[in-house]
Amino acid sequence: MAFAINMLNVRQIQILILLWNDDYTGTELAERVNSSRRTIIRDINEINQYLIERSIAQINSSSKYHMVIKNYREFQALIEQFEIDDQTFLFKLLILKNKSIDNLMAETYLSKKEVANTVERLNNRYQGFVEITSKIGKGYQVDFQRITKVDLLAYLIFNNPKLIQNVPNLNMPKINNLIKEDKQYIPPEINKYLVSKQITAQFLALNICQIDDAKKFYLEKIQILNKLNTASIKKILRQITDKYELQIEETSLVTDITEHLCRNNLFPTFISASLTKQIKDIKIKNPFAFDLANDFSQAAKEEIKDIIINDEYIGLYVVRAIDIISEDKNIKILMYTYQRSIANINENILLENINNINLKSVYSKDEFDNLLRDNSYDISIMNGPSSDNSGKFDISINGIINQQHISYLKRITSNYYINKNLGNIFTPSNYLNLDNQNGSYLDNLRIGLSEFKSRDLLGDDLIRTLINREEAGNQLIIDSIIAVPHASSRIKFGSIFAIKLENPVILNNNSINLILNVVIDDQEEASRQIFSYLYKIFHNTSKEKIKQISSYEDLFKILNNPE
């Protein structure tokens, strides 16, 4: 298996992926890639040399290794090539008759350790669909759940048609004639959802697997397709959305999910490795959308047997449906200005640079006072001499708006809800230093929540919801150090209940130092900004600073500084 990125081996690219997602110590990396710390140090030096020479990225080292990407396009190419190499390995494994370790090493040009690492990575990548196991004396064995060998081969061929060059004795002229003839009999339902290239990939996979009866293959697909319709999806979705009380554009979401499930069950696909970090970031900012998607997937699997469904795909559709509802909820700004010409210039500057505002300009102080009194404006701007600022304005600008004003307005508009209400969202009573000596993550979460209950801040129902969500395993973690249990309740402001742990606890291989229990009114779009705000704040805060938090004032200062 010839790597396009010749200087980096399988283990080194795996390290690259890990550092793209998070910071790690040398010991942590050694555990993740099943290697020694000495080897990691050597690998980091080689990776760094490769990245710096090409001006792609650089790995810095303090307490942990941290990667700074300089050329995202080139870095993305590395990740994509890494996935191509993995898919090439998997394709060869599937078509090999003799799947012994020696034969696999000979076919892929990988060492025994690299083969083992690649197999482990593929098992994680296709968990729930494919399991690769090693049998003594028999080599590797591939077992499938919910998809078939034909499905997986078709997916790999569709992504990389060059893979069929690895298939021995493949008579392409004969296969092309068969495809041309058999396509005439493809049911119209298939053509509605699949493109020609996907159908061709399926025929090639059928041929490789020596399955002559394409009609039977597609008949089984149609049987699954018949179970998927907008009525059944709408019924399941309503059961779930009623529980979450989310404001969602239901019609578009039902259509999107139904069509996605039809496409994905006819031709199963998987989220690419290059998108995993982006989806992780979206999930952190929109946890309720992915919680809903997880519940929907579980309910759909029980209601509609034998379907293929991916939580993360559904979560992306839910986020989109929420965004459709939220598009019109711009921040309202009222600007009082002396000169119309200046007002026109400033309006254009604001509207070109800030995309989430609804701006109105007035030229009379009386009109300004009346509008501010009778209408709900979020921000007021005084555009004139500062001596005329009567204290009624949030911002004073004398003359043309400059870049400093733009940056300031961008900051307060993007974080408006939090900036305005942080004192209500996070009060001194909402903070707890927990001197934990032992116990699991859940044990310490229960202790902390019980303390907030004793302060009359949380009730039993809300505590139960927070704990049940964490016990279900659908945890939200920011930068591998902060756990964010979350729940929805009808409250005027969102609330953050912080538990700072004296001693870190382990959660999903992450060392958790801070637990931020977040309660929001999920019917209020502004309230959901809390998650995006927290992600932005802590993603730009050093882990050492988070570990050093010892008081309410320490944490409030971090939360109140969205630079």
From TrEMBL:
Gene3D superfamilies: Mannitol-specific EII, Chain A, Winged helix-like DNA-binding domain superfamily/Winged helix DNA-binding domain
Recorded superkingdom: Bacteria
The entry's keywords: Transcription, Transcription regulation
Database matches in Pfam families: HTH_11
Entries under InterPro entries matching the protein: BglG_antiterminators, HTH_11, PTrfase/Anion_transptr, PTS_EIIA_type-2_dom, WH-like_DNA-bd_sf
Presence of the UniProt keyword Transcription in the record: yes
PROSITE patterns: PTS_EIIA_TYPE_2
PTS EIIA type-2 domain boundaries: 425-562
Protein name (database record): HTH domain-containing protein
Species this chain originates from: Companilactobacillus keshanensis
